[in-house]
Design brief:
- The relative contact order is 0.16.
- The protein has helices spanning 2-23, 31-37, 79-84, and strands at 26-28, 41-44, 47-61, 65-72, 87-91, 95-97, 100-102, 105-111, 116-120, 126-131, 133-134, 142-149, 152-158, 160-166.
- The protein has one domain (26-166).
- The strands form two sheets. Strands 1, 2, 3, 4, 5, 8, 9 and 10 form an eight-stranded antiparallel beta sheet that branches. Strands 6, 7, 11, 12, 13 and 14 form a six-stranded antiparallel beta sheet that branches.
- It is an alpha+beta fold.
- The radius of gyration is 19 Å and the shape is globular.
């Protein structure tokens, strides 16, 4: 009886751990699934800009947690805004980006020439900055994409990327 009780407890613990791990597993969305979650326009610093749908990406962590990024047409923005802002970055749950915590929210982002990934609130105020990595082995860089990684997803802008992980 004691052995049976210990076996059941161990089985329940293993199942609980497996369920918890599955909730944070990242899946990069494609096609219609991605199109359903990517917004067609985005507001930043008092202006709304259309999303470049071909240069957008989304990932799902578990069954209901999303991270969405996309480049926008910034032609209507000032030179100053265009220099720091490439697109939008939305997360509906806390995550880590490049090892740094980022809370739930909608943000602007940009990869800078000094090798940083910078995140701004919709008013244009800096929220966080983290180092980006150059992937020289990437065969066909795209303006923006996400690729599955063991511990999350990589968000790329050309060859520069940051690792995004569930928190």
């Amino acid at each position: 009886m004691r052995f049976l009780s210990a076996s059941i407890t161990t089985l329940l613990l293993v199942c609980s751990l497996a369920i918890a791990a599955a909730q944070d597993t990242a899946i990069v969305l494609t096609g219609k699934e991605a199109a359903r979650v990517v917004p067609t326009t985005y507001y930043f610093e008092g202006l709304s800009a259309p999303t470049q749908m071909r240069n957008s990406a989304a990932a799902r962590f578990g069954s209901k947690r999303y991270v969405i990024a996309g480049l926008v047409d910034t032609s209507g923005y000032s030179t100053e805004v265009r220099a720091k802002y490439q697109g939008f970055f939305i997360t509906d749950s806390p995550i880590t980006v490049g090892g740094k915590d980022l809370g739930t929210g909608a943000y602007g982002f940009g990869f800078s020439d000094d090798g940083k990934f910078n995140v701004f609130d919709v008013g244009g105020n800096a929220v966080m900055s983290t180092g980006a990595t150059k992937d020289t082995a990437l065969r066909r860089p795209r303006p923006l994409m996400m690729l599955k990684e063991k511990d999350g997803v990589r968000l790329y802008a050309e060859r520069s990327y940051v690792l995004i992980a569930a928190k």
